Amino acid sequence: MLHPGSKARLNPYTAEHFDPGTAFGRWARAICTAGCLPRKELFESWEFAKRVRRRFRTGRIVEIGAGHGLVSASLLYLEAGFASARCVDPREPASFSKLQAVLGDHWPRLRGRVTFEQAGLDEVHLDGDELLVSVHGCGALSDRIIARAIAGRARIALMPCCHRGDTGQLEGWLPAPLAIDVVRAGRLRAAGYRVHTATIPAEITPQNRILIGDPLPGAAPC
Q: Among 123, 136, 166, 194, which is most buried by a count of CB atoms within 10 Å?
């Protein structure tokens, strides 16, 4: 059995390990043919997208630090209610176009719905109904995404990593990375958000906490 946390690159030969009779198996087999992604990113993007879909099923996705855009594509594959996805990153990797072309060939409904914007977070324009997502928003990037979401009253789903930030002086009770995420959840609540938390299997990544925020109608920040 393939270990889901391996950074080994998927390739056409690994496709046989995935069951074509399941939605995930078909998705994984297509990605294997692209031959450009680590196995770990397939599993973590899929597990993240599944948990986000339980809370959100409509609107436009804006993926920050998107890289090859697999998180966005996974959300669109799982949920037809999402209109489109914008993948934002200061640098476009070669794997983005290659991956999206392969997925579009397998699922024509995905063609043209995942686009790339070579930009920084501060350049992102929000005009309502967006869902900001980021997997492994490193260090302060997660806090900047939270601030951007609050300013635009956007929905948000994050899986932070490389934790640096405000621990709320909770280190006596909690490990520092967990304390930082607890403070982040409190920040969203204080800003008038309904907060949800989830995890993906730790065997995929130890940085496995998901923070989800949905702005409450009419709620004003405290």
A: 136
Bridge partners of residue 214, in order along the sequence: 194
pLDDT in tens, 84-125: 999 999 999 989 999 999 999 999 999 999 999 999 999 998
Do residues 65 and 137 make contact, with C-beta atoms less than 8 angstroms apart? yes
Positive or negative: CA dihedral 176, 179, 185, 190: negative
Strand 155-161 and strand 130-138: pairing? parallel
Three-class DSSP category at 87: strand
Whole-model pTM over 0.85:
yes
Smallest CA-to-CA distance from 143 within 130, 162, 124 is with 162
**Mapping DSSP to helix (H, G, I), strand (E, B) and coil, where does residue 163 land?**
coil
Calpha distance 92→113 (Å, rounded): 17
